[in-house]
Write a structure and sequence with these properties.
There is one protein chain. By secondary structure, the protein is of the alpha/beta class. It is 32% helix and 19% strand. The protein has twelve helices and 15 strands. An eight-stranded parallel beta barrel has the order 1-2-3-4-5-6-7-14, surrounded by six helices. Strand 5, helix 6 and strand 6 form a beta-alpha-beta unit. Helix 2 packs parallel to helix 3 and helix 2 packs parallel to helix 11. The longest helix is centred in the last third of the chain and has 19 residues. The protein is globular and about 60 Å long. The protein starts with a helix and ends with a helix. The N terminus is likely disordered.
Length: 341
């Protein structure tokens, strides 16, 4: 930790937690979430997977449950409407406003403009999908649409976050745990290239209907997305979900197959919470709307204790979350080890 935390604190940071189902939302709230983010069952959010998300009635009940416990519900409207299909995003915004959503997480300029024009009193958060990481772009969203908070891409160091905070007129939210994927959030078209469905426009990265596993005579498992081989796993290896950016591929520059961009391990910044608070971060986000109720309950509970300890000036209690990380490995990512521009 740098400097005296208590000299820098401007308020208690919120713990923002994921929920892909009503049961998971209740688990997050019960474990101490200050706010839960979720989406409707359609392409308006970046986790449009079968079996996930909320109907309007389920969302209304979830809001009542969260509010009764003093927690907020944030609605993800963070995909990019294709031409001629904007009505679906308008309907989601209208429904969310009518049932009492506390804040809307937006990425598309048109969606942000619709919210600002139709519901000027609503609270807007700029999604990580917008990939805004410099003061000029963030100030634009704040000035034009009244954005109150920006969710930063996972590409900045703590000193860079501190400097950014001094140059923008809104709150900052950073991810602290979970999958951290590619470093070009909001701009990935890999799934669209492979199977014709886009994370950013259809809300589905590696849609399950296109996922296929095939076991070979030697016991190995080949994972495909559409017709594309994404990875092969030895008989004793645990086969992962075939996401293109996390597949292993053969290339002339390596002797063995390796990941296209980086090894798929999970972000875990629990030990850096005091530094992030000192840098002016207003909210900590846990990734994982596709995760189970047990996963969400365990991770939220651990981070609830850690944030409270940091705010009290104590060292966050040790919590072994490695078993819940991707590939049983964890990293502090660019926040602590950035070596590239």
């Amino acid at each position: 930790m740098t400097g005296r935390l208590t000299d820098r604190l401007t308020g208690r940071p919120e713990l923002i937690c994921p929920a892909g189902t009503p049961a998971t939302l209740r688990a997050a709230v019960d474990a101490g979430a200050d706010a839960v983010y979720c989406g409707f069952r359609n392409a308006t959010n970046a986790r449009n997977f079968a079996g996930l998300n909320f109907t309007p009635d389920e969302m209304r009940a979830a809001i009542a449950y969260a509010h009764a416990a003093g927690a907020k519900v944030l609605l993800a409207l963070n995909t990019f409407p294709p031409a001629g299909q904007f009505e679906l995003w308008k309907q989601a915004a209208d429904i969310g406003t009518a049932i009492g959503i506390d804040a809307f997480i937006v990425a598309d300029i048109g969606v942000a403009a619709y919210m600002a024009e139709q519901y000027p009193g609503s609270r807007l958060h700029l999604s990580v999908q917008a990939a805004a990481s410099n003061p000029e772009s963030i100030r634009y969203y704040c000035g034009e649409f009244g954005v109150r908070r920006v969710v930063l891409p996972r590409i900045l160091t703590v000193p860079e976050i501190r400097r950014l905070k001094s140059e923008i007129p809104c709150e900052i939210e950073t991810f602290v745990f979970g999958n951290h994927g590619l470093m070009v959030e909001g701009r990935c078209s890999l799934t669209n290239y492979a199977v014709g469905r886009s994370t950013n426009m259809d809300g589905a990265c590696s849609p399950a209907s296109e996922v296929h596993y095939q076991r070979g005579p030697d016991g190995s498992v080949t994972a495909r997305l559409g017709c594309h081989v994404i990875d092969r796993f030895d008989r004793d290896e645990q086969a992962g979900y075939p996401t293109i950016c996390k597949g292993r591929y053969v290339a002339p520059v390596r002797d063995e197959p390796y990941y296209a961009f980086e090894e798929p391990v999970s972000l875990n910044l629990m030990g850096m919470l005091p530094d992030l608070i000192g840098a002016g971060v207003d909210a900590f986000k846990i990734e994982g709307r596709q995760r189970s109720r047990a996963y969400v309950g365990a991770v939220v509970g651990a981070f609830r204790a850690a944030v409270d300890a940091a705010m009290a000036g104590r060292t966050p209690p040790a919590a072994d979350l490695v078993a819940l990380t991707e590939g049983q490995k964890q990293t502090r990512g660019a926040f602590a080890t950035k070596k590239w521009r």
